[in-house]
Amino acid sequence: MDDTSFTQQRYLKKRRRHKQTVSISRGLILIGFIALWEITTRLGILNSFIFSSPGRIIKTFISMVKDKSIFLHIGVTLYETLLSFALVVVIGVLAAVLLWLSKKLSEILEPYWVVLNSLPKSALAPVLIVWLGATTKTIIVAGISVAIFGTIISLHTSFQEVEPDKMKLIYTLGGNKMDVLLKVILPGTVPTIISTMKVNIGLCLVGVIIGEFLAARNGLGYLIIYGSQVFKMDWVLMSIVILCVIAMGLYKLINLLEKLYLKRI
Amino acid sequence: MQPLLELKNIGLAYHSMNGETLALSNISFSVEDGEFIAIVGPSGCGKSTLLSLISGLLSPESGSIRLRGQPIQNTSTNIGYMLQKDHLFEWRSVYSNVMLGLEIQKKITEKSMDFVNNMLKTYELEKFRKSKPSELSGGMRQRAALVRTLALEPDLLLLDEPFSALDYQTRLTVCDDISSIIKEEKKTAILVTHDLAEAISTADRVVVLSKRPGTVKKIIPIEFDIPYKTPMNTRNAPEFRDYFNIIWKELNENG
Prior knowledge:
The structure holds two protein chains of two kinds.
Chain A: H1 6-42, H2 48-51, H3 54-66, H4 69-101, H5 103-118, H6 125-132, H7 136-160, H8 164-172, H9 177-188, H10 190-215, H11 220-229, H12 233-264
Chain B: E1 5-16, E2 19-31, E3 36-40, H1 47-55, E4 62-67, E5 70-71, E6 79-82, H2 94-98, H3 100-104, H4 110-122, H5 138-150, E7 156-160, H6 168-184, E8 188-192, H7 196-202, E9 205-209, E10 216-221, H8 231-236, H9 239-252
Parallel strand pairs in B: 3-8, 3-9, 6-7, 7-8
Antiparallel strand pairs in B: 1-2, 1-4, 4-5, 9-10
């Protein structure tokens, strides 16, 4: 059966070609970058002691896989990131709900959120170490501190943007403020909650790495700072490559969550 | 017999930092069981505010509202309210949207479910119970919203320009549709509208409000000498134009 017209076929072909060009170009940039890096270090144009090289990174990675130390570092960083992320989501939603419930409270606290949100969170890290010690606790709090204030502000804003008539509907059906919260505000803002999650997972990773720079014995942040101190640039660059992969993976995870949600409704 | 709803000397002002604006003043009228009342008036005259008062969402600053002789705060009389837009929730299926009121009032019983299922069947929404609201046409959405309101078996229905968000063609059909459903279910209804034709074609009496502050200018009983009184038929009746002119004149007298 052939019920697509010639122009439609031409359109589809054009779209396909466009997609192919995009993905091939993406691949070429990556391969070109890696090849350039490898070749220049081999020819001695770049010093591989300082710049490392794809080959050296892979070698380092394999040897660390063999002594299993790499799993510890990746595991620790992932655990800390996911834990602080989960706490950000829970605390963020609860705080935003509280602010929504009390307009007075939200007005009173508003300037404090603004200050805390624009404060560079890395400035807090040394303070956290003094207060909480060089422990996992510090790192997780650092992860939370980077993401939490923005989360509360954007969730609270989206709660306030829910159409007043939708809330009026609940009241006309005999509901109270709790019904408005559970039947309109929360289910209606799930898309916003997911999109702030997308931003947050990356921010938590940033916070955790800052924390690990200062207060860790394990983790990729620790590996980076330690590697740079003892001039093992292979460790540093390998950790950065792994962080790229982790950041990508976590983002895809939230994307998957979003797709599942969209499918369910 | 006692009227279903009685408003006496209702007054209300809006308050803002710039001062107060009198929205409604000295409004009195009553509604009998089974009546269909339309309220018309220039925009901003407080028509919708009046419905919020009757439903108890707002309290009047002066005067009294009584339902079957009782103040609205402690009455067992059920009031259904239909808003301008249907506000069906996209994250719920049509069925679960329709059940929203029963869910909130914790009245989901076998009997109430049967009642809703029957309405869905009668009003041709049965096939779409599992659909998302966005898959429904404008008219079907408005019918679903009506079923959601009727599910709570209200004694009095308040309709706040429920057709104004629809395009003209749909609007005529849905108006026909909804008003015949209301007549079938023998409900008492108050319709707020700025569309005179809609008011005349649906109502038993039309209440004309003045410009802000809204007061009752005139209450006009509408009677048609035709056998099947549906909004579509009344629009073609000879009396229609006379009523239109009377109300039009009322609205434009002294602004």
